[in-house]
Write a structure and sequence with these properties.
It is built from twelve helices and 18 strands. The chain folds into two domains: 247 residues, Aspartate Aminotransferase, domain 2 (3-Layer(aba) Sandwich); 158 residues, Aspartate Aminotransferase, domain 1 (Alpha-Beta Complex), CATH 3.90.1150.10. The longest helix has 18 residues. The protein has 433 residues and is an alpha/beta fold. Helices cover 32% and strands 16% of the residues. It binds pyridoxal-5'-phosphate. The site of pyridoxal-5'-phosphate has 15 residues, from helix 3.
Length: 433
């Protein structure tokens, strides 16, 4: 027996979310401004305002507002593909037949654009210090696939990855970086001695205003760049690639990816609260850390000297020796309770029974059925097909699978009260009894 219910703890009356939108009032005013001035379109003051303010906040020259972070990532990946390999036919991707290195533990929207553009994603294993792309594994990947010229890097849960190391390796191999800062808007990174915002660290940069993000537009995303030419191209591609002609004239394939001025009103209203949201999320992280100090677990780590996360999601990872047996197939999970031990499945089921939402760590891309046939590279080289029925394997290493197995995302909603969070901490402690 592991979880021993404390009879004084009752399920939450109101659901505690993982991370839900937090509105402040101004959002509705700017939406109504769009309505009252009839700019109910993909042009208008809200769009102009947020593009100018976010470019300035992120420390880049240009920002292009788009319908979602996925659209930003698609056009960023396409821009990189076109720069590297030239313009593609309308019915072909710019990365046809080309290898692209990508973060492995991330949401699939980071890396699906590689497939949209007909490229072949090669997944790069994760490091334990920040749970992001491992520069040592990236270096190995360049040994295995030396012709690769593009790397897609995400900052997981708002924690900046090791960008200086990754940039150095990419520069040495003449490779470009698409930076996915969808989860890390507002997080900072000390790059070569200068503090910079995530979303300004790649050659092509993207953020998201999805409903669960640090600030939201209900949906939406942005492409960030210092290049006027790239900003202009993204604006053109995102509005069906119209040419300068009196009629609808097209020389390249287009997309309908521009942000609505109504959505931009929500983002505009949220922007002044970015720092408040980050401070609230940080307080949640610190409270968990303190609450778990006697448990065999750790919080999702970050480099305190080189980064300031936005603490979007608080996560924990259970020490290996404190894990009870747990198995997962493609859609279900089972565990065997053991005294003094627990596992993500037990904790997530317990939270759910008490009306609170946690979530497994994002399942690594190399383990996803859709990408199982794609290469996966670890610090030991090829990460596929390493076991041998006849020989004891020594070099097996899969950090992403390990974090997925032992880790979980905790309820991180900034409307959760300290008292509610204390109940969640108690429930998790009870799992280890
Ligand atoms: C890492 C990451 N990349 C990309 C996206 C896609 O952003 P959007 O939902 O705005 O398309 C998300 C989240 O939604 C994400 O978490």
């Amino acid at each position: 027996m592991s979880f021993k219910a404390d009879p004084s703890l009752k399920p939450f009356e109101k659901h505690i979310y993982l991370s839900s939108p937090t509105m402040h009032g101004e959002e509705a005013e700017y939406m109504m401004e769009a309505y009252n001035t009839n700019w109910m379109s993909t042009v208008g003051k809200n769009i102009n305002e947020i593009e100018a303010r976010i470019a300035s906040l992120a420390g880049v020259r240009y920002a292009v507002a788009l319908s979602c972070g996925t659209a930003a990532l698609h056009l960023a990946t396409r821009l990189a593909g076109e720069r590297l390999y030239g313009q593609a036919r309308p019915n072909a991707g710019t990365l046809a037949g080309k290898t692209v290195f990508a973060s492995d533990v991330t949401f699939d929207a980071s890396i699906n654009p590689i497939a949209y553009e007909d490229g072949n994603a090669v997944f790069i294993d994760t490091e334990y210090d920040t749970w992001n792309m491992d520069p040592a594994a990236l270096e190995k990947a360049f040994e295995l696939y030396p012709d690769t010229k593009l790397v897609v890097v995400a900052h997981l849960y708002g924690t900046p990855g090791k960008m200086d190391e990754i940039r150095k390796i990419c520069d040495a191999h003449g490779a470009l970086i698409v930076e996915d800062a969808a989860e890390s808007f507002g997080a900072k990174y000390l790059s070569d001695g200068v503090w910079k915002e995530t979303g300004a660290l790649g050659d092509y940069n993207c953020i998201s205003f999805n409903g669960n993000k640090i600030i939201t537009g209900s949906s939406g995303g942005m492409f960030l760049t210092d290049s006027k030419e790239d900003a202009d191209k993204v604006k053109k591609w995102s509005t069906q690639s119209r040419e300068d002609a009196p009629w609808y004239q097209h020389e390249e394939i287009g997309f309908n990816y521009r942000m609505s001025n109504v959505i931009a009103g929500v983002v505009r209203g949220q922007l002044p609260y970015l720092d408040t949201h980050i401070a609230q999320k940080k307080a949640i992280y610190e409270r968990y850390k303190e609450g778990f100090k006697d448990l065999p677990v750790k919080m999702n780590p970050y480099d305190e000297t080189k980064s300031v996360p936005n603490f979007w999601l608080s996560c924990m990872i259970i020490d290996p020796e404190a894990m009870c047996p747990q198995v997962r197939d493609d859609s279900k999970a089972l565990y065997t309770p053991e005294s003094g031990k627990s596992c993500p499945t037990e904790i997530l089921q317990t939270l759910s029974a008490y009306n609170a939402e946690g979530r497994p760590i994002w399942k690594p891309m190399h383990l996803q059925p859709i990408y199982r046939a794609h290469p996966f590279v670890t610090t030991n080289g090829n990460g596929r097909a390493r076991s041998n029925a006849y020989i004891q394997e020594t070099g097996m290493r899969d950090v992403g699978a390990d974090i997925f197995s032992r880790g979980l995302c905790l309820p991180s909603d900034n409307k959760m009260t300290p008292e509610q969070q204390d109940v969640i901490i108690e429930l998790i402690k009870d799992c280890f009894k």
